[in-house]
Amino acid sequence: MLKKVDSSQLHVGMFIHDLDCGWMEHPFVRNRFVLSTEDEIRKIMVVGIRSVTIDCTRGLDVSDAPTVAEAEAATEAEVAAIAAKPVAPLRTTLAEEFDRAVAIRRQAADLVKTVMQDARLGKAVEMDKVSPVVENITASILRNASALLGLSAIKTKDDYTFLHSVSVCTLLVAFCRSRKLDAATTYQVGIGGLLHDTGKARVPDAILNKPGRLTDEEFEIVRRHPRDGYDILRRSSGIGPIPLDITLHHHERRDGTGYPDRQGEQDISELAQMAAIVDVYDAITADRCYHKGMPAAEALRKMYEWSKFHFNPALTQEFMRCVGIYPVGTLVLLESGRLAVVVEPHESSLLTPKVNVFYSTKSQTYIKPETVDLARGVGFGGADKIVRHESPDKWQVDPLRFMQLA
To answer: Gene3D superfamilies recorded for this chain (predicted)?
Structure first.
């Protein structure tokens, strides 16, 4: 039996089934092992892991701990409450914005690649080239956030560093919009998102793309990238304090376990806290050379659990409402037995988005794609509901192929 336990409840003789830290490094070779020393427990606490999953059939039990299923059910109930608040309406349809969003994303990725190359050569960032890209991303988000947010799920391992920066910019701009921040602040935050990983230009590719676990020495090199990026950007003409703050502090955590300054909750600016949430969300949903990305809906639920210690809980909930409880691009199973991809959030109920159905799990065949508005009832194009999110690998389908219907 698998149970969720607080790290303070750990004892030698328990079997760790999952360290539950998909976004952070930890000092263990494996995620599953028997706790054999008090030092192992201390290491779990020191790196900021606050809860783990134990297997009671393979080690000591904690009698009053909830099972994984019970813990997930409690989280799901809390997530449903978060979904009840309205979100901003869209100005254009996904079809109208999609092609523009593809071009904007490609332009932004090319820019980030140039910025990183220039940084490696010791050149300053040319802000006159950055500004129009951020403005284009912002304009696309204002017209229809679903287009760029859906494209954010598509990343190749080779271009991950560049596309991650574009996604963080996109998500941060959408986050600012959903929080109704002013245009000037949103623009500065967007620049911070696009340039936040500039310091990785000083990290050797062999470390960035290493398929196995990093050594302590390699991890220390990676941990220098926020300050390296800050130093690079500080020498660039026209860079403001908000992008500098986001670049330097997007890896800080509210319990003080982050880096580079181990800031606590009271020290991290609100915008840097927003960047931390977005950065982790995008990182854990992406396929990397060393791990398989989580489905977006699952990642949001993990973020919600982690926010009790590592992120601002209120901001995390606002971010969940921003991207949707079932984010655009998420594969979902409907009550009818059909698979669908989420293409647009509903303005008042994030549990009933608009989806494109394309596959029957009953016949295990593709079906004629169609758009279904889950907020509508029988006779109005709806009358179906989401049972759960699904892994595309499980069904061997690519839901993003059906973001647009012919």
So the answer is: Hypothetical protein af1432
SS3 label, residue 116: helix
Sheet containing strand 2-6, edge to edge, reads 2-6, 51-55, 15-18, 33-34
Query: What one-character DSSP code corresponds to residue 294?
Result: P
In this predicted model, what pLDDT tens digit does every residue of 68-119 receive, in sequence order?
888 888 888 888 777 766 666 667 888 889 999 999 999 999 999 999 999 9
Query: CA-CA-CA-CA torsion for 265, 269, 274, 280, nearest 10 degrees?
Result: -60
CA distances from 299 to 143, 158, 163, 320 (A): 26, 22, 18, 10
Calpha distance 223→89 (Å, rounded): 39
Cβ(164)–Cβ(282) under 8 Å? Answer: yes
CA distance 192 to 73: 36
Angle CA 174–289–328, to nearest 5: 25
Question: ∠331-332-335 over CA atoms, to 5°?
Answer: 160
Per-position DSSP letters for 171-233, written without gaps between them: HHHHHHHHTT--HHHHHHHHHHHHHTTGGGGGS-HHHHT-SSPPPHHHHHHHTTHHHHHHHHH
Strand ranges (E), 51-130: 51-55
Element spanning 80, H or E: helix 68-82
The burial class, CB within 10 Å (0-12 / 13-18 / 19+), for 46 is: exposed
DSSP class of 85: S
User: Which residues share a beta bridge with 370?
Assistant: 357
| pLDDT tens-place string over residues 275-302 | 999 999 999 998 877 677 888 999 999 9
Q: Which amino acid is at 278?
A: V
List, in order, residues 6 or more apart from 163 with CB less than 8 Å away: 105, 109, 154, 155, 156
Judged by DSSP in three states, 98 sits in helix
CA 236 from chain center: how many Å? 29
**H or E, element range at 357:** strand 354-360
